[in-house]
C-alpha cells in the first residue's frame, strides 16, 4: 500500500512540475555558439582520413569569431554511391563528411 502512495505522489509531483515549468521565463544574453568557420570541404575530408592531422587541428589556438576544428567533437567520412535507375552504381562515388560540433 505504501508503494502505491509513493507512486501516486510521485506522479502528482511530476505533473505539477510539468505544468509550472512551462510558465517561466529564461533570459539569455550573448550567443550560444559561433557560426562555423569557412573551411573547405577538402580540409574536412583530410581531417576525416588523417586522424593525426585532425588531432593537431583540434589543439590549435581557437578562432574567436567562428567555430573551427577546435570547436568540434569528431569528423567522419562515409562513402555514398548513388545508383542509376538500372541499379548499377554511377560514377564517381561521392563521400559524405560529418562534422560534430561541441
Break the fold down into its secondary structure elements and pairings.
Elements: H1 2-21, H2 41-49, H3 51-58, E1 72-80, E2 94-101
Antiparallel strand pairs: 1-2
Helix pairs in contact: 2-3
Compute the number of helices: 3
Separation of the first and last Cα atoms = 47 Å
Query: What is the total tally of β strands?
Result: 2
Envelope shape:
extended
Q: If you had to describe this structure to a student in words, what would you say it looks like?
A:
By secondary structure, the protein is α+β, with helices and mostly antiparallel strands. The protein has helices spanning 2-21, 41-49, 51-58; strands spanning 72-80, 94-101. The mean pLDDT is 77.
Summarize the structure.
With about 100 residues, the chain is α+β, with helices and mostly antiparallel strands. The chain is about 35% helix and about 15% strand. The protein has helices at about 1-20, 40-50, 50-60, and strands at about 70-80, 95-100.
Q: What descriptors fit this protein?
A:
102 residues; alpha+beta; 3 helices; 2 strands; extended
